[in-house]
Design goal:
alpha+beta, Immunoglobulin-like, 4 domains, six-stranded antiparallel β-sheet, globular, disordered N terminus, protein-glutamine gamma-glutamyltransferase, metal ion binding
């Protein structure tokens, strides 16, 4: 009898793809899950049981036992009889808003003729639900919900304050297998390994889940998803610039037996975390902060060092990154109060330990703006990223002395950017993080934050701000000006503009250097230096040419294409004037073209065009292509060696599987160009 019953039960629980938002009740646009029971017994009583995690219990809300009823749900788990036809029952199931996310086992207890039978019906996955007003991740605006939950491709901003660029990213949260991999991320966390029952029970809280994921997307403590590398040497793995999206990273992590994938940098960590958050139903977006401070000692200032010859020095643990990328997740903060609900910073890039682990956030964006650095989590670090003072020092290793050169209270935290809702435009959200630079509110918030930190930190940073106004005005000013095209393979042409601000003649000794760098300021190699003495008449302004040849920087330029130029300008008996500028060289264009009308399940031809701009061959050429809804997995094409100035034309085929506007992403790499990017929006018809 048991055997017969087991073989007559069928479960039909529908979701959109594998990563449906079908937990905690279902949005009206999704089909309602139903269970059809083929039961031949005339008399019966039924109960349903759901459970999740290794030690399910009703007290921890990881197990629920509930009867089949004709009434409506009152907030807990419930199973309601929808219809009865012959011996077929259609049953609708509802879940409570505070149920933990994860994989559940569904069983039925059936009593008939004095006998009880417990049958395992199958499993289903419970996710957060941004469509449901009672859910902690509820997002009311439809367009925002579509962008921050349903959109499976996006844009990440990179570069520098004077040259903001962008790269496409394939989030791919609906791709086959991704939801299961994302669930396994939670099950590999340190929290799960230490206390699995408590960890699973806490997965009803997006704040908790987000913090665990910020630790697990990096592999520093826990064999998480990605291994970070900012050295400029990526032997044994992939240059972080070569990734097109999260899907291949997550699949590689699983394929390797859950060992960290090599290598990631901040936008790779952020793109991957964004995939996982959206996969779980937490609205999320990727955010870029330009001139991002890395303050290691909680004093709201970062110290930057140069030697008297203009060489940047890696001294101390503070740094300023040209850009840094993190995530924002949208959810309530029941621990802080409703004024701190909404966007929360989550950062998976391993920078500093928090509670002994490389994790960061969630930190309320509203709290960052108001300087509430005493609140959870990691508020002092995130506040400093967008508000710290930048203190420049001249360090003389020969005499073991250092002199404070300048204090800059305005340059940190610029052009904080994210992709616009429904378009590929850039939106500046700096005002969400801080009041206008230099305003009275901004000053008040900074002092408030200092007051909430340790007394000695408050004194040190307050002094830095006060001293900034007391520093002696220099007699000269200087800046670097770009005078030619900035392209890889071409000579870099700039000019150092020096101006005498006084009515006296000045003699200036100038020491200049140029270094290739990684975007976070890591020095790679000195590629140029020069020293000159210049006489300036009263109020005179001159331009001193700076030329850096391709032969000088070619071997040392990394995929960031960044060169840091510095000049230390010394007028006798006066403090040095430091002039600096980071430049970014443009790669040659990589073009993608669709040759046919794109339709679902119809092969489409795409063409890649690339011209070698150099006077020498480029070899070891590889084209990597991916795009959710356009390709299953990724496509790798080996491209033949290109002669000097030769144009390459490569055709390949894609097979769209979903209609709508989809994003095709390409990365072209060779021995002379480590990572050239292209993206193309393709409208796919039914």
């Amino acid at each position: 009898m048991t055997w017969c019953l087991a073989h007559l039960i069928r479960i039909l629980m529908r979701c959109v793809g594998e990563a449906a938002i079908n937990g905690k009740d279902i949005p009206s646009l999704l089909p309602t899950p139903s269970i059809r029971l083929f039961v031949p017994f005339p008399q019966k009583r039924e109960k349903k049981a759901n459970m999740t995690g290794p030690y399910p219990s009703e007290s921890a809300r990881t197990k629920a036992v509930f009867p089949l009823s004709n009434g409506t749900s009152h907030g807990g788990w419930s199973a309601q009889l929808v219809s009865k036809q012959d011996n077929i029952l259609t049953i609708s199931m509802a879940s409570p808003v505070n149920a933990p996310v994860g994989v559940y086992t569904l069983s039925a207890q059936i009593s008939s003729r004095g006998k009880d039978f417990i049958l395992k019906l199958g499993t289903f996955i419970q996710l957060f639900n941004p469509w449901l007003p009672e859910d902690g991740v509820f997002m009311n605006n439809h367009a925002e919900r579509e962008e921050y939950v349903q959109e499976d491709a996006g844009i990440i901003y990179v570069g520098s304050t004077n040259r903001i660029g962008m790269v496409g990213w394939n989030f791919g949260q609906f791709e086959e297998g991704i939801l299961n991999i994302c669930l396994s991320i939670l099950d590999h966390s340190l929290n799960f390994r230490r206390d699995p029952a408590t960890d699973v029970a806490r997965r009803n809280d997006p704040k908790y889940v987000g913090r665990v994921l910020s630790a697990m997307v990096n592999g520093n403590d826990d064999n998480g998803v990605l291994s970070g590398n900012w050295s400029g040497n990526y032997t044994g793995g992939l240059d972080p610039r070569n990734w097109n999206g999260s899907v291949e990273i997550l699949k590689e992590w699983k394929k390797s037996g859950f060992r960290p994938v090599r290598y990631g940098q901040c936008w790779v960590f952020a793109g991957t975390l964004n995939t996982v958050l959206r996969c779980f139903g937490i609205p999320s977006r990727v955010v870029t902060n330009f001139n991002s401070a890395h303050d290691t000692d909680r004093n709201l200032s970062v110290d930057v060092y140069y030697d008297p010859y203009g060489n940047p020095i890696e001294k101390g643990s503070d740094s300023v990154w040209n850009f840094h990328v993190w995530n924002e997740g949208w959810f309530v903060r029941t621990d802080l109060g409703p004024s701190y609900n909404g966007w929360q910073v989550l950062d998976a890039t391993p920078q500093e330990r928090s509670q002994g682990v490389f994790q960061c956030g969630p930190a309320s964006v509203a709290a960052v703006r108001e300087g509430d650095v005493n609140l959870d989590f990691d508020m002092p670090f995130i506040f400093a990223e967008v508000n710290a003072d930048r203190i420049t020092w001249i360090y003389d290793a020969y005499n073991n002395t250092q002199k404070r050169n300048a204090s800059d209270t305005h340059s940190i935290g610029r052009y904080i950017s994210t992709k616009a809702v429904g378009s590929n435009s850039r939106v500046d959200i700096t005002e969400k993080y801080k009041y206008p630079e230099g305003s009275s509110q901004e000053r008040q918030v900074f002092e408030k934050a200092l007051g909430k930190l340790k007394p000695h930190a408050a004194f040190g940073a307050t002094s830095a701000r006060h001293l900034a106004g007391e520093e002696r005005e220099p007699s000269i000013s200087g800046k670097f000006k770009v005078t030619g095209l900035l392209e890889v393979g071409k000579e870099v042409n700039m000019a150092l503009l020096l101006k005498n601000l006084t009515s006296d003649m000045k003699t200036v000794t100038v020491n200049m250097t140029a270094w290739t760098i990684v975007y976070n300021g890591t020095l790679v190699h000195e590629v140029w230096k020069d020293s000159v003495t210049i006489s300036l008449d009263p109020k005179e302004e001159i331009q001193h040419p700076v030329k850096i040849t391709y032969a000088q920087y070619e071997k040392y330029l990394k995929a960031d294409n960044m060169i840091r130029t510095t000049a230390v300008c010394q007028v006798s008996d006066e403090a040095e004037v430091l002039v600096e500028r980071d430049i970014i060289l443009d790669n040659p264009n990589l073009t993608l073209e669709v040759l046919d009308q794109a339709r679902v399940q119809k092969p489409v031809n795409v063409q890649m065009l690339f011209s070698n701009p150099l006077d020498e061959p480029v070899k070891d050429c590889v084209l990597m292509v991916e795009g959710s809804g356009l390709l299953l997995g990724s496509l790798r094409i080996d491209v033949p060696t290109l002669r000097p100035k030769e144009r390459s034309r490569v055709r390949f085929e894609i097979l769209p599987t979903r209609s709508g506007t989809k994003q095709l992403l390409a990365d072209f790499s060779c021995n002379k160009f480590p990572a050239i990017k292209a993206m193309l929006s393709i409208d796919v018809a039914e």
